[in-house]
Specification:
By secondary structure, the chain is an alpha/beta fold. The protein has a single domain (8-119), classed as Response regulator (Rossmann fold). The protein is built from five helices and five strands. Helix 2 runs parallel beside helix 3 (64-73). The longest helix has 11 residues, at 16-26. The chain is globular.
Amino acid sequence: MPKDRRPSILTVESDETIGRLITGVLKADYDLRSARSGAAALAVAADTLPDLILLDVGLPDIDGFEVCRCIKAHALLAEIPVIFLTSRTSTTDEVGGLEAGGIDYITKPINPTILRMAQRR
């Protein structure tokens, strides 16, 4: 990444209020794009090639795990890290997210400090 370019993050969040919270936490340090559905996430990711994707599991059209699998199967997107942000707290869901290709799994409610720290990995 060129030194003068800020890292970019695609946030995929179906809940508008949570989306605004994520934007508020990250906007000072990152160029942000957003999507509210799985189909929109795939289109925006392919168009912008973000440095990181923050992905909700409970999307209105395509399950976030499936969106992640599609990202990892796409030649241009496969290397983009995906962090799940979700209210699903079961071990089964967390394992499912990591098996789908996610690098981390953060549960809601979102702790701003944890969210900022996760971006730095």
